[in-house]
Each structure stands twice: as C-alpha cells, then as structure tokens.
Backbone:
C-alpha cells in the first residue's frame, strides 16, 4: 500500500484484555489489516512482532500512524499492562495521540457486527474473570451503555431485570451462561471472537475526530479486580 492510499487518518489498534492478543490498522475508521494470536500467556512476546508484521504487510512505516488506540479494560491485569505500556511507548516515540477504548464497548461492537439485533435487543458482552465471575456491561444497538461495566458472579437470577426481553451474549465469559440460559428463546449467544482490535476502529476514530485523547503519561487501564500479575516483557517498535 502506498502512502497516497493513506490520506485518511491511520490508526493502530491494540487489544490485550483477554487471552487473545490482537492488533489492527484502520484508515478513516475502516479496518485495512489485522493480526492476532490466541496463544495463552504470550502477549509479552507476541505483541510487538504482531505490530511489526501488520505494518510490513501493509507496507507503511510507524511514522505514517496518526494515533494509537488501546483496550482500557476491564480484563486481564497482565494483558492490559502489556497493551497499555506498549501503546504508551508507541505514542511517546511517534508523538501521536493515545486513545483508550473500553474492552466491553469494543466487544459490544463485535457482537453487533456478528449478529443482527433489533432496536429493542440488549447486547451484553462478557470477559471471563475466574470461576463463575465475569466482567459485563449492557448496551443497546447504538452501543449506548445502559449498565456500566462491573464484575458479576453469574447465576440463574443475574439477568432477571433484562428478561423477558431479548438478550445477545458474547465474549470469553459468555460460555458460563449456556447451561443456565441456553434453552431460553429470548437469549442468543454469539460464538465468534469479539475480543478483536478491529472492533475498536470505529470507536477510536470517533474519539480521534472529536479530539478526545488520553494523557499518555498518566493513563492507566481499568483492571476491574485484582489479578496475579507478571512483569511485561515488551520489545521495541522497529
């Protein structure tokens, strides 16, 4: 891809809130390339090679980037630390804006892309925590947040206030609900991977156009709860 094809603003997107390590490039809010790895516990070693391979495949330089977006949580403590520290390093090195995108809002965009919700349907993305715990939030079709991100221990009564309306679940934590709600005709499960950096593209670009940037020096992710952390080992951008 030649630079003339990148007249629109080009953003790098990083998603590391779950076991999936994912990166994407967008131009004018439209995804033009993506790379991901689902190998567990590999974010520290995989993230920078994924980014470099992404740029190489498109044929652009880091200096062509106009901003970098990163998943802001909730999610894996270690994964978020690695993603945010990498995004900060890139933003500093290239002197470009940092844009944080909520992990659950991005996942909700993934559910929206992989399903066909009606105006009255509720979208509930979930990120696995541990045991029967998840991080979740509730959105409508316009991705307006109806219930803020929160940790939840799921059981049969967890969604009484939202049923009997139609609910679309998705994400790494949604599998825990299938035995409880799988037979409910008002419950739909989206099985595709919604923890993908590509789903942050439109959300990040909207913030970019509005000039809504995060402070590169002081931004910290929202972990949601305590996780056992390991030290991130992030190599430099080429």
Residues:
């Amino acid at each position: 891809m030649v630079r003339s094809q990148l007249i629109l603003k080009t953003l790098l997107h990083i998603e590391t809130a779950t076991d999936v390590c994912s990166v994407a490039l967008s131009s004018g809010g439209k995804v033009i390339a993506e790379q991901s790895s689902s190998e567990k516990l590999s974010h520290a070693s995989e993230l920078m090679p994924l980014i470099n391979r992404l740029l190489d495949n498109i044929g652009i330089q880091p200096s062509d980037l106009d901003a970098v977006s990163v998943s802001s949580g909730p999610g894996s403590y270690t994964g978020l630390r690695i993603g945010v520290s990498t995004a900060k390093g890139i933003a500093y090195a290239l002197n470009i804006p940092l844009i944080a995108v909520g992990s659950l809002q991005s996942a909700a965009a993934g559910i929206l892309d992989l399903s066909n919700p009606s105006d009255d349907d509720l979208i509930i993305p979930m990120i696995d925590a541990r045991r029967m715990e998840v991080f979740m939030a509730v959105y409508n079709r316009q991705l307006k947040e109806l219930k803020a991100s929160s940790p939840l221990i799921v059981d049969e009564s967890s969604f009484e206030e939202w049923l009997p309306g139609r609910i679309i679940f998705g994400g790494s934590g949604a599998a825990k609900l299938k035995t409880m709600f799988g037979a409910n005709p008002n419950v739909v499960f989206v099985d595709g991977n919604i923890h993908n950096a590509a789903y942050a593209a439109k959300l990040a670009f909207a913030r970019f156009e509005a000039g809504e940037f995060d402070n590169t020096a002081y931004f910290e992710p929202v972990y949601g709860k305590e996780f056992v952390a390991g030290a991130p080992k992030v190599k430099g951008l080429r």
User: Anything to note?
Assistant: Residues 71 and 233 are 18 Å apart (CA to CA). The beta strands are 10-15, 21-27, 30-37, 67-71, 98-101, 122-128, 133-139, 145-153, 167-170, 187-190.
